[in-house]
Amino acid sequence: MEQRWLGNRKVGAIGFGAMSFGGMFGPTDEATSLRCLDAAVDTGISHIDTANIYGMGLSEEIIGKWGCRDVHLGTKCGIINGPPRAVRNDEAYIRECLEESLRRLRREHVDLYYIHRRQPEIPIEDLAGTMGRLVQEGKIGGYGLSEVAPSTVRRAHAEHPLTAVQNEFSLWTRLPQLGLIQTCRDLGVAFVAFSPLGRGMFGRDPLKRDFRAGIDFRDTNPRFVEPNFSANLAAIAPFRALCAERGWTVPGAALRWVLGQGEHIIPIPGTRLAAHLGDWNPPALKASDLEEIGDILPAGFAHGDRYGDHQMAFVERYC
């Protein structure tokens, strides 16, 4: 697998998002998740991304039991699931969450530690100072921010250099191209793209609307409810046809498009099943192929917002 810089270390250009290990997209078990991690490393993946809120610690516990020390590992804190949903960025809370994550991960150090959502009442310079102290103490290798605006990135980076920014980015979520991806490039900060396969919409086969009510959040997500769901399937169908015609896998082509938007971009698709990993191999595409994909799926084609209103509460908006 090609390599890209994540802080001061090169990792596989495609990372792995471990949200699914928390059971948030379908039933899974520890043995299945461990097999998936083994298979991910076998494909050349060397960065694993998780968070304390994924399965309320379950994802971190599974990764801790897996125990592989050869991968670059990132986790997050900051969201309080509630109800009500809230965020905390004060230093005491961040330190408490970090110690709990390290215990579950069975590590004394984590390579990358994100603030999952920013608490607006705390100046970003104060937050960056907290994260800088954790770096200096050797608790974390670097820090990141998630779902933030370009102005926040610049202010944080000026206080203590950022390692990465993680926001949603894919063929159907293009907002980061309106300044955030460019800001990260100019500052030398990695841009980690979560949900690069549209939460399964760009999977091997078209999704069916059989999400588990009350568990799989896609069940009430605006892009996955009718009539948006059927409209999105229809909009993506020509892209699927192009992939079949050219001999590309749908996930592979979608990931190649994301990778093609900048050398500092690292997508982190997720799965709970090792069998899906073989579909992620991105084909070698020409500039004309990427342009053709963009013509079939132009910016803004998606029907519905990417989050419901309650999930947008702590996402920074800048356009």
From TrEMBL:
Domain of life: Bacteria
Keyword Repressor appears in the UniProt entry: no
Domain NADP-dependent oxidoreductase residue range list: 13-278
InterPro entries for this protein: AKR, Aldo-Keto_reductase, NAD(P)_OxRdtase_dom_sf, NADP_OxRdtase_dom
Keywords: Oxidoreductase
PANTHER family the record matches: AFLATOXIN B1 ALDEHYDE REDUCTASE (PTHR43625), ALDO-KETO REDUCTASE YAKC [NADP(+)] (PTHR43625:SF40)
Listed name of the protein: Aldo/keto reductase
Organism: Paracoccus acridae
High-level lineage: Bacteria, Pseudomonadati, Pseudomonadota, Alphaproteobacteria, Rhodobacterales
